[in-house]
Design goal:
The complex is a heterodimer of chains A (218) and B (236). Chain A is α/β, with parallel strands linked by helices. Chain A has one domain (4-208): Glutaconate Coenzyme A-transferase. Chain A is built from 5 helices and 15 strands. In chain A, strand 13 (175-179) and strand 14 form a beta hairpin. Chain B is of the alpha/beta class and 236 residues long. Chain B is built from 6 helices and 11 strands. Chain B has helices at 9-12, 34-43, 63-67, 83-91, 101-113, 180-184, and strands at 21-24, 48-51, 71-76, 95-98, 117-120, 134-139, 142-150, 154-165, 170-171, 187-198, 217-220. The chains are: A alpha/beta (218), B alpha/beta (236). Chains A and B meet through helix 3 and helix 4 of A and helix 4, helix 5 and helix 6 of B.
């Protein structure tokens, strides 16, 4: 079973040279740590950065320079700063090549829920609704099973939706899935040591398994 | 030459009244109008509707106006950092309109651009689309649904910039820019507080982010705490 860093490491392999990439809060943020040498990408932070760098060295934090998770960050050579309307303009116009974000639930037809648990947790959608409505290439990083052991890959989301028919790929602690246009989670890879049986038990939505499913290499 | 300079936050906000709608710049605690928020707390105006991406933290930013229950309604995209906010919202004391961040920015921009509505795909098929007009448009070769959203209508826009001059031109610094330029354009009255107020002519016209025409009152903030919400560092 993959831990959070394992999920991030697997997703990092989807990042290709020359991409502009938006990383959401949580596991997606960790992806930046695993982008292979020689793959040049620019990270977009929706509060207004292209070319975001790593955390600053101790003592060099700048209160005016944060990422979308409100963490202090740095700028790399060639970076640019812009306002919030421009930031979501480039997202809406599909200039950002890849979006990686977390989810509470994903359904077999590509719906995603990640902003609200009615009566309990209402933090808001931030930029997630804009991102999922416009991005052409979205990867969801999530835990497949909740603390109670219930699957979060569902026939239909039970929580309020963030977007509809927008998710095409999901990476979890157990495996990698494509969501097919006609519906269903198509298993592509198993996490190291995970059996097909374990994956079946952890997938409430329609699961499609064709032929031998390889174990992922990290 | 036009002179927009006022003495301080109290003078800039002298005609803010109960039940008004205010826009406040900032993303988290980054680029927030600290001096104006302090002045609003002191002034004690109530029943405010505040349009701001976030609601501060419990003891800083807009959190200060929540503690004193001066806010009736918040229009924001993300409020995760504030326990008092969540408590007031879940108990029903505080009205909250959560909207997508890009929609928030663009509704501000539309107001400043003189456009009554925008169409965005954000939120189509979700609960925020309820009661809103949906139209199909073909764009970039793809036909899909878009939600109609209205430009904001606010009595005051309150923004923070790094530098400003006496005619109201503004320059922001780093990611403290965020919503400030959009909101500066969108207020019936726009108040700008700046870290450095300079005479007209000192800022390079090519480097102005917000042209002074949008700014009605400007002052240099007395002090800036510029609190960091999440201090993240790496070892040397």
């Amino acid at each position: 079973m993959l831990d959070k860093n394992g999920i991030a490491k697997r997703i990092a392999r989807e990042v290709k040279d020359g991409m502009y990439v938006n990383l959401g809060i949580g596991i997606p943020t960790l992806v930046a740590n695993y982008i292979p040498e020689g793959i040049n990408v620019e990270l977009q932070s929706e509060n207004g950065i292209l070319g975001m760098g790593p955390f600053p060295f101790e003592g060099e934090e700048d209160a005016d320079l944060i990422n979308a998770g409100k963490q202090t960050v740095t700028l790399l050579n060639g970076s640019s700063i812009f306002d919030s309307a421009t930031s979501f303009g480039m997202i809406r116009a599909q200039k950002v090549d890849l979006t990686i974000l977390g989810a509470m639930e994903v359904s077999e037809n590509g719906d995603i829920a990640n902003w609200k648990i009615p009566g309990k947790m209402v933090k808001g959608m931030g930029g997630a609704m804009d991102l999922v409505a416009s991005a052409k290439n979205i990867i969801v990083a999530m835990q497949q099973v909740n603390k109670a052991g219930e699957s979060k890959l569902l026939p239909k989301c039970s929580l309020p939706l963030t977007g509809v028919h927008c998710i095409k790929k999901v990476v979890t602690e157990l495996g990698v899935y494509d969501i097919l246009p006609e519906g269903g989670f198509k298993l592509l890879e198993r996490a190291p040591g995970i059996s097909i049986e374990q994956i079946k038990k952890a997938t409430a939505g329609k699961l499609i398994i064709e032929g031998d499913i390889p174990e992922m290499s990290l | 030459m036009i002179n927009k300079v006022v003495k301080n936050a109290d003078e800039a906000l002298k005609d803010v009244k109960d039940n008004m709608t205010l826009m406040l710049g900032g993303f988290g605690l980054c680029g927030i109008p600290e001096n104006c928020i302090a002045a609003l707390v002191k002034k004690g105006v109530k029943g405010l509707t505040c349009i701001s991406n976030n609601a501060g933290v419990d003891d800083f930013g807009l959190g200060l106006l929540l503690q004193t229950k001066q806010i009736k309604k918040m229009i924001s995209s993300y409020v995760g950092e504030n326990a008092e906010f969540e408590r007031q919202m879940l108990s029903g004391e505080l009205e909250v309109d959560l909207i997508p961040q890009g929609t928030l920015a663009t509704r501000c921009m539309a107001a400043g651009y003189g456009m009554p509505v925008i169409f965005t795909p954000a939120g189509v098929g979700t609960e925020i689309a309820q009661g809103k007009e949906v139209r199909k448009f073909k764009f970039n070769g793809v036909e899909k649904d878009y939600l109609m959203e209205h430009a904001f209508d606010s009595d005051f826009a309150i923004v923070k910039a790094w530098k400003g001059d006496t005619v109201g031109n503004l320059v922001y610094r780093s990611t403290a820019r965020n919503f400030n330029p959009m909101m500066a354009m969108a207020g019936k009255i726009t108040v700008a507080e700046v870290e450095h107020l300079v005479p007209a002519g000192e800022l390079d016209p090519d480097h102005i982010h917000t042209p002074g025409i949008y700014v009605h009152r400007i002052f240099q903030g007395e002090k800036y705490e510029k609190r960091i919400e999440q201090r993240t560092v790496r070892k040397r």
